[in-house]
Write a structure and sequence with these properties.
Helices cover about 25% and strands about 20% of the residues. It has eight helices and ten strands. Helix 1 links the parallel strand 1 and strand 2. Helix 5 runs parallel beside helix 6 and helix 7 crosses helix 8.
């Protein structure tokens, strides 16, 4: 599989997965060890509610194979606030509070905004300036997840591109979606898995996501997804190759591991 495309799920400790991802009677304390060898990335959601201690990050790293990458949701107290520009101490406390323990397993950090947070150019620009761009000599990758329709504008795209901050493509019936690329990598959270489909998504839909992932990785932009602006170069390759992160999140959560594994097989 092309290592520029990583596919996974959110977390690894979900009881229903003990019936369809992990072998029977597999020890719960070894679930990350197993999941990280079936998938190519996992989005850590627990950090949204509370950062972990450095030894925990180090242990998670030790349980995963070479080439595996985590992404992390930043703590909500960094983003669930009226004024993002005031989040400097919270941001530094999270980033410099142990993330270096991940080493080369550290992937993008997802800064998820609350649904009430509307686009405010000055406040968001100040927030972007607060995001550290390196940790122990390694570049950090940041992605913003927006949940207010006011972000569906050219002014937001210009700001995010100037600051080289990626934007989450959220495939959801509930939240606004924009597939306009704003960073050096692509980050998609897919939220439409269905309980009555063994693989969560129909085969034809997984085929489409494989094609989109490949296009993104080659520097192109799919034209069949919602956008604010027309795709540059008619959707053809217009940038250098990119890394792509795709996570099956929420919806029929019990089906998400099967959806991720099915997409990985298609990409192989």
């Amino acid at each position: 599989m092309d290592t520029k495309i990583r596919v996974g799920i959110g977390g690894w400790n979900y009881a229903p997965w003990r019936n369809n991802l992990y072998p029977p009677k597999w020890p719960q304390k070894r679930e990350l060890e197993f999941a990280s060898r079936q998938l190519t990335s996992i989005e850590i959601n627990s950090t949204y509610y509370s950062p972990q201690k450095p030894p925990t990050y180090a242990r998670w790293r030790s349980e995963t194979p070479d080439g595996f990458v985590f992404s992390l949701k930043a703590p909500r107290f960094c983003t669930d606030r009226r004024t993002l520009a005031d989040a400097g101490n919270a941001i530094d406390g999270f980033v410099f509070g142990g993330l270096a323990e991940f080493g080369d397993r550290l992937g993008p950090i997802n800064w998820q905004l609350p649904p009430y947070k509307a686009f405010d150019r000055a406040d968001l620009a100040a927030f972007f300036d607060l995001l550290p761009r390196a940790l122990d000599g390694l570049p950090l990758r940041h992605v913003l997840e927006v949940r207010h329709t006011s972000f569906l504008c050219a002014e937001y795209l210009e700001l995010a591109r100037r600051q080289r901050i990626a934007t989450v493509f959220t495939d959801s019936p509930k939240y606004p979606s924009l597939a306009d690329a704003t960073g050096d990598f692509v980050y998609a959270r897919l939220m439409r898995s269905e309980a009555d489909i063994d693989t969560g998504y129909a085969a034809a839909d997984l085929d489409l996501w494989a094609q989109r992932a490949q296009a993104w990785s080659e520097g192109a932009e799919p034209t069949d997804l919602p956008r604010v602006q027309a795709a540059p170069n008619g959707g053809g390759a217009s940038t250098a190759p990119r890394e792509v992160y795709i996570y099956f999140i929420s919806a029929a959560k019990e089906r998400n591991p099967a959806a991720a594994k099915s997409l990985i097989e298609r990409l192989r």
